[in-house]
């Protein structure tokens, strides 16, 4: 069975003052799952310090694929690891849209994350137009194949299914739709890496996860956790989501 992971993505939100949420979160950290927060890069080191030895893990939201060089404004995987990051999200749809990141770039970033000794959370997901055109599973197949590098060690990969139309909208797929995509992802990964390796890869659902819908989503087969945006900003929301995962 894959390990369970409740991952929060603060996106471009937060400040040193917001680290008070870390205190509230670690005061009641569940033990039945891993809990991760991915703040803006400037807050990684302070958040790691604030989390202390609590078990709360801290990650990053993206990285450059190169180790160093003339890439103004970018941050390498090794730099994030040095700041204390344990995970890096790669291929989030906002990166794919805002920065035109392709599957090949996402695979190169994922490779860089693995080489730096961290875990990559690789994001895939269809747009609303793709779901309406009934090509969701083909889109997921293509993104999975293109975004995970061949040499990837299954124990250091997490995959997040995030339908683009569910992110930040308050809309979620039906539980059957989530089950269908997650079963498809598990089958695709099994075909590529073997069944046992594929079952070790946590498959997260992401897109408008809230305390009110977390438990029913975690009860879906092949859902091993969540990638949470808006509801990860407040411990009062993210704590109960993590607790629901631990209890699932
Ligand atoms: P949301 O974002 O929870 O605010 O919908 C999810 C994500 O983008 O990871």
Please give a structural write-up.
The protein is of the alpha/beta class. It contains eleven helices and eight strands. The protein has helices at 20-26, 44-51, 77-83, 93-98, 103-115, 128-132, 136-147, 175-193, 195-199, 211-218, 235-247, and strands at residues 5-9, 34-38, 57-60, 87-90, 119-124, 157-161, 203-206, 225-228. Strands 1-2-3-4-5-6-7-8 form an eight-stranded parallel beta barrel, surrounded by seven helices. α1 links the parallel β1 and β2 (34-38). α1 (20-26) packs parallel to α11. It starts with a strand and ends with a helix. The mean pLDDT is 97. It binds 2-phosphoglycolic acid. 2-phosphoglycolic acid binds next to β8.
Q: Low-confidence parts, pLDDT < 50 over ≥5 residues?
A: none
Tally of alpha and pi helices: 11
Rg to the nearest angstrom?
17 Å
Order of strands, widest sheet: 1-2-3-4-5-6-7-8
Instruction: Please count the beta strands (DSSP E, at least 2 residues each).
Output: 8
Distance from first to last alpha carbon = 13 Å
The residue-averaged pLDDT reads 97
Q: How does the overall form come out from the CA principal axes?
A: globular
Assembly status: single chain
Q: Helix amount, in percent?
A: 40-55%
Name every ligand kind in the structure. Answer: 2-phosphoglycolic acid
Strand fraction? 5-15%
Q: How would you characterize the largest beta sheet?
A: 8 strands, parallel, barrel
**Helix/strand class:** alpha/beta
Q: SSE order in H/E notation?
A: EHEHEHEHHEHHEHHEHEH
